[in-house]
Design a protein that fits this description.
This protein folds into three domains: 81 residues, Arc Repressor Mutant, subunit A; 222 residues, 3-Layer(aba) Sandwich (Rossmann fold); 76 residues, Orthogonal Bundle (Helicase, Ruva Protein, domain 3). 41% of the residues lie in helices and 17% in strands. It is built from 17 helices and 17 strands. Strand 2 and strand 3 form a beta hairpin. Helix 1 crosses helix 3, helix 1 packs across helix 4 and helix 14 packs parallel to helix 16.
Length: 434
């Protein structure tokens, strides 16, 4: 299992809480419209409840409500102690109905694009110093050569991009995920949403960014959470790299690279996506080189966003067969993740056995290595121990017995797992695809 990241305080200043509408960086009319939609959808709310929903200070919400009361859009219906209870009027309800036709967003107040750009640049992963103890702590659950760990740590200090390549089943995806745990020891601020020309782009995703920490004294429109790790695989399309406008709610969802800003973006099984590598090359030549990305709103206007993330391309194809030299040059580090030596295979198998409460038997694993290497003509891969132990556990569950690592269970596991015949029906040798 991955090592829990040690939560540390950010080494940059947090975004300060705005104490007036002017300090939010947003137009007053925009915030008033958002307030009306919240009241329209929720009914009567106290000023404190509106403040919590909008993630704005009491002072800012009070300023908004004073103007809305003057415009007869809302009215005070009562008091809870010193806190007013507010409801929308008929005039306000008609206005809110018109606003809902524009978009249905009624959540936390967004931040301005200018504020977002400043904050992302302030907390860039390139400014994070990575040292051997952090790398070793994140990779303690894996068995890797020290030279490989050193290459990974060096790559992380670049804050740019990396190619992990090698045969299938050698642990590239696991290594890529562990890289994110190194950076996750540091925490950054992620906004709930961004406002651009009156349009809303939702960035915060609790599934990717976690629940966050709002106990600190900073602008509550931001969530303090570990540096994000976003993984996309074979499902990736060129459309997924653009702003996603929901035709019903009429606000945008940020693409994968925007959600990954200040963290790690993992392109798993690169070269096997629904988009061709050349398409991704053309789309990301500028972002990888200049660290800026251009995203289009529905009307066609292009908006410049920061591209501040550590990009990991994991593939079982050779990089030179996937992309041209110009793109390869922009990926600063290439690390080959190869098959295992016997010693490392033993270490991984022993760790998997311990995790699954199986007694490890070195002699049985030696015999297993001979079977894999000489009977099935396969190299030793990092995935084999876990996959074969799973086969042993499943068989024991079926037979209603306790799983045990012995010759019989191993033989049953390998015959179920490996493809024995490497010749086709005409006797021609089939080349394995890695």
């Amino acid at each position: 299992m991955p090592v829990s990241a040690a939560k540390t305080e950010p080494h940059f200043a947090p975004p300060p809480s705005p104490e007036s509408v002017a300090e939010t960086g947003l137009r007053q009319a925009f915030l008033e419209d958002l307030t009306l939609k919240i009241l329209y959808l929720n009914g009567s709310l106290s000023l404190t409840e509106i403040s919590a929903q909008m993630r704005l200070t009491f002072a800012v919400v009070n300023e908004l409500l004073r103007h809305l009361r003057a415009e007869q859009m809302v009215e005070v219906t009562g008091m809870h102690g010193n806190i007013p209870q507010v409801a929308i009027t008929t005039k306000g309800r008609n206005r809110a109905f018109e606003l809902m036709a524009q978009n249905h967003y009624a959540g936390a107040a967004p931040v301005s694009l200018e504020s977002y750009v400043r904050q992302v640049q302030r907390q860039s992963a390139r400014d994070t110093d990575i040292h051997p103890p952090q790398v070793e702590r994140a990779f303690t659950h894996l068995v890797l050569e020290q030279s490989t760990l050193d290459k990974l740590g060096t790559a992380l200090n670049s804050g740019t991009s990396i190619f992990l390549y090698g045969p299938a089943g050698t642990g590239k995806t696991t290594i890529a995920s562990a890289l994110s745990h190194v950076l996750a020891e540091d925490r950054v601020f992620i906004p709930y949403a961004i406002e651009v020309d009156g349009q809303i782009i939702v960035v915060y995703d609790p599934q990717l960014h976690g629940t966050g920490d709002d106990s600190q004294n900073f602008d509550a429109r931001w969530v303090l959470c570990p540096r994000p790790a976003v993984l996309v695989g074979g499902e990736l399309t060129i459309e997924m790299l653009e702003l996603q406008l929901n035709p019903v709610t009429k606000f945008y969802t940020a693409p994968a690279q925007l959600k990954a800003n200040n963290g790690v973006l993992i392109i798993d099984d690169f070269g096997r996506q629904r988009l061709r590598p050349e398409e991704l090359l053309n789309r990301w030549v500028v972002p990888l080189d200049r660290r800026i990305d251009f995203l289009a709103l529905a009307g066609g206007r292009k908006i410049e966003f920061p591209f501040e993330m550590f990009v990991v391309f994991a593939t079982n194809l050779h990089p030179a067969t996937l992309v041209d030299a110009a793109f390869l040059r922009r990926i600063q580090t290439k690390i080959e993740i190869g098959t295992l030596a016997d010693e490392h295979f033993h270490k991984i198998f022993q760790a998997v056995c311990k995790e699954n409460n199986l007694e490890f038997d070195s002699a049985v694993v030696d015999e297993l290595i001979e079977i894999i290497r000489y009977e099935f003509k396969e190299p030793l891969r990092a995935c084999h121990p876990r996959d074969l132990v799973n086969q042993i556990r499943w068989a024991a569950r079926y037979l209603d017995t306790e799983p045990v690592l012995d010759r019989n269970s191993v033989r049953t596991a390998v015959t179920a797992y490996f493809v024995a015949d490497t010749n086709d029906v005409d006797g021609n040798r089939i080349e394995r695809v890695n």
